[in-house]
Amino acid sequence: MATANRRVVRPRILLFLLVLTALTLVTVDERANGGGVTGSIRSTSRDIFAPIGDAADAVVAPIGDFISGIVHYDALKKENARLRGQLDAARNDQLAAKDDQRRYKEALDLLQLPFVGDIPSVAAQVVSVGNSNFEGSVEIDKGTDDGIGKGMPVVASGGLVGRVVQVSKRRSTIQLVTSPDSAVRVRFAGSDVDAPGDQGTAKGNGEGNPLTVANVDVTAKVANGDAVITQRGRFPDNIPVGKVTAVAPGDLEQQVTMVPAVDFGRLDLVKVLLWVEGSAP
Amino acid sequence: MLTRTRTVAKLTAVVLLALVLQSSVLDALRIRHVHPDLLLLVSVLAGLAGGPEKGVLVGFGAGLLSDLVLTTTTPLGLSAAAFCIAGFAAGLLANLVIRTTWFIAPLVAMTFSAVGIGLFAGIGALIGQQSLVRAHLFTIIGVVGVANGIMSLACWRPIVWAARTESPLRRSVGIR
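The joint structure predicted for all components is written out below.
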């Protein structure tokens, strides 16, 4: 009888104690805001696991690719057909494309989008994509040893990728602009940089979903197809964020939807800008 | 004492293997931008095979590992809290099963994986992580539940071997 009681009571006591411990850790971590003792423990754990993860990736990558191929077979087949069509069209338009490229560069210069400019940067490779279903993030193979710090912006060839939210010696985690926790101050290309009405905050809605630009004044001149670029604040000025795809009028603000400039499905090489908030734009 | 040490060592090895597989192979397996959660599955199956006590301990350890290595912006300890409750609940259910059916393990794995994800988002929302509770949550719950239920068919025997217990469920699904 006593043994039977212990079998019932002991797991419940254990559950209570461990849940209490877990919630204590949550409280400590939240108060430290990602830093402190819990932040150090997390950074050290990631540095310890990094070489194990790299070795495992090297061994099981063919298995992962095989599984991905099976799961996405139909999509891969369609993309293959689409790319073949594009290749044929590109061959035919080669001469015209060269002229278009020259005109595009001139237009870009006229719009004065310096993008990275003179900001020092560190190139990195994406080693892990979104280990959690609730976080829109990727991990890169550079860390504090390479001069990277928390909050630094990250860009790819298309535009803004996100910013560094956690960093250890050899690894950094990037919160993508598509993450629901991401908020980027933006303005619409061609607008007056000091006109408050033509600004907004681009918020992510999860992987694969368009972004929402909130707080856009009803008087702002926004149209479908407008380029969206960063406004000075957490990020340097004039980094491409995306393109407007829908504008709906509202009572207090316009409802603006946009797609990101970067193709997050093919993210491989990125640049971390060694720039912090408050630096020269 | 030696048996207990061996059980702890085997369960630790299983959890660590699950961590490696989660970060390397399962990342590639995405349905509607959601991937299975092997560490949560291991926690639930450990409860099913070993009883509520093992479910709690494995859930806490697996959840803590997930928080330390896999997640970044969610607080440390959130997965540990959710997984150990899911593992405990699965262990309680194991003691109540009286009928012999082969699909109990996948069915319970599917249900309590969905519960684990819901707990993760719910506890997170209570402490201020409002972004965890959004429309996409139901997709995550559905995909993780179904995927974990299917994967449990392959994971069940290794977990039973590691937990090494004579739980009623182990007998009922014909594990010798």
